[in-house]
Design a protein that fits this description.
The structure holds 3 protein chains of 3 kinds. Helix content of chain A is about 85%, strand content about 0%. Chain A has helices at about 1-15, 20-35, 40-60, 65-75, 75-80, 85-115, 125-150, 155-180, 190-215. By secondary structure, chain B is an all-alpha fold. The two termini of chain B are about 40 Å apart. Chain C has one domain: P-loop containing nucleotide triphosphate hydrolases (Rossmann fold, 3-Layer(aba) Sandwich), CATH 3.40.50. Chain C has helices at about 40-50, 80-90, 100-105, 120-130, 150-165, and strands spanning about 1-10, 15-25, 30-35, 55-60, 65-70, 135-140, 170-175, 185. In chain C, the strands form 2 sheets. Chain C has a 5-stranded parallel sheet with strand order 5-6-7-3-8, with helices on both faces. A 3-stranded antiparallel sheet of chain C has the order 2-1-4, with helices on one face. In chain C, strand 1 and strand 2 form a beta hairpin. In chain C, helix 4 (about 120-130) runs parallel beside helix 5. The chains are: A mainly alpha, B mainly alpha, C alpha/beta. Chain A: Required for the export of heme to the periplasm for the biogenesis of c-type cytochromes. Chain A: InterPro entries: Cyt_c_biogenesis_CcmB (IPR003544), Cyt_c_CcmB_bac (IPR026031). Chain A: This is Heme exporter protein B. Chain A: Keywords: Cell inner membrane, Cell membrane, Cytochrome c-type biogenesis, Membrane, Transmembrane, Transmembrane helix, Transport.
Chain lengths: ~220, ~240, ~200
Amino acid sequence: MIALLLRDLRLAVRAGGGFGLGLAFFLIVIVLVPFGVGPDKTVLEPIAPGILWVAALLSCLLSLDRIFALDFEDGSLALLATSPLPLEAASVTKAVAHWLTTGLPLTIAAPALGVLLHMKTDAYAYLTLSLALGTPALSIIGAFGAALTVGLKRGGLLLSLLVLPLYVPTLVFGAEAVRRGAEGMDATTPFVMLAGITFGAFALLPFASGAALRVNLK
Amino acid sequence: MSIWEYANPKKFMATTTPIIPWVLGIALAAMFVGLVWGLLFTPDAENFGASVKILFVHVPTALMAINAWFMMFVASLIWLIRRHHVSALAAKAAAPIGATMTLIALITGAIWGQPTWGTWWQWEPRLTSFLILFLFYLGYMALWSAIEDNDTAADLTSVLCLVGSIFALLSRYAVRFWSNGLHQDSTFSADKETHIDPSFWYPSVIAMLGFGLLFLALVLIRTNTEIRLRRADALEARQRRSA
Amino acid sequence: MELKVSDLTVARGGIPVLENVSFTVPAGQALVLRGANGIGKTTLLRTLAGLQPEQSGQIDCPEDESAYASHADGVKSQLTVEENLRFWADVYGNQVPDTIYEQFDLVDLRQRAAGTLSAGQKRRLGLSRLGVIGRKVLFLDEPTVSLDRFSVKLFADFLQHQHLNQGGIAVIATHIDLGLDAPEMDLEPFRAAPDAAGGSDEAFL
């Protein structure tokens, strides 16, 4: 698993693209929002947590189809399927690699972009914590979607259609945690739910992804 | 004789074809009686006026929207475990019907909401849940149509249906948490005596029965169509190989 | 140790292509599969390797000893030759033997990114994977595509000396003569009848 993780990270760094692209997309979405809704602080401040979460989610979506597609095309996936590493473990590893290259940078960059949206000072800690807890779920759910669509020629759009509804609970609890934090309310419940979704998804979804990959390799 | 014998496509077709007209006939009759009774011969509600009568359509379709997904869930499980083709095709056949029911429930909900809440759309937990359910239906159907190989499509959509069911439940909990309810809380399921006049109760039960049977009839018809399509494919493939 | 296949029926896209295939390969032996394009060599090899389920029949293969290789050999162009090999060795929990670079004539290419290699050099790298994973039973699908005569010889030598002579087993689908001392099996007699039983759409007929 470590070997696969290191290889995926190395590929992500060397291939350029993937890494920076998600971050750049995140930045652009956040910059576009004030152009759409106006520069008024009283408008931006309350919507900042939600916008940041939606933008982070969309940035994650951007690189999902690469999780398995490249390995599928060059035959690595078939070779991995016949190796001692079970496909379930491969899905977890690849989701972790995806998170390290997209979710983690987004989590780190989000507070800086919060400034652009006049987010309340109290909310920064909540934003970082909620993204750190929630974005791994986005990666593992996305890996499941990628496993379903890996055999398709133009699976990218379909992948978004399949994955976005699955993202609803994560988004709801993630944004709610930040919103409550900004308003000085108790955010324990959404944080617990967010952690629950992430751990639950990591415990169960790899089996679904592994099954989907096996079907697609047939 | 085991119930699984009916999972054979030919046996299934032979058994269901004669009963489809009956199911459809009873369904339409029940819907007619239920709706005419409900819409024309019930008193207006005290607080809501005549607008409340759209619930005679809204409630049965909403019920069927959920039941259709539940049926797809069970059918997907049966396909994954026992690999009966009819089961996979029944799930495929139910999806567009369920999606249509969801859409009708959403639209009637909006129409009911307009005079009641003064707005066409409220991000209210139940309506929102149905909107999410509708997205799940769209994704499910899109995956079916995107994959060429029939068995691969059946496998992958079944996995999606199982995972989707968990996330649909989770979403329902999430949106309930996220917004405060505006809906009539569990008008029909909880305790009918306190809320609902019997004069509303009977026609709505008949209408629900009608919509349920309509769903059954449509699923049977569409499943038979899917079986015929697969059969045509299979025969064509066999002919090609013999040539 | 031996590979024993009995009454195997394999299907492609839900349609049986080969029926009742039976053979035994003892340790130290290779088996070369012959047959026209589309007869099902790839399907058979993928089934043997466990990538797709068999329709019927039995495959007796030593557990956790098989490996599969096809023309898509999973070489990552952004990684160097050495990194590519080390990755596969790690996945299988092995070390990369230093001799592997000589056996596949990759010594001068060790630090080169695989993306800068020629098609033949890439193939050699792909095949050298078989030397680091330490598996005893190899299922090889057209291993010599885009190799020149010299490289074919290198690969055949590797297969004979480093694999078969060490008690390994190989089942190879190929159109050219590798120069191995191995029995050949023509798949033509096993071609599935048009109305063969066991297809996925059988229930609909």
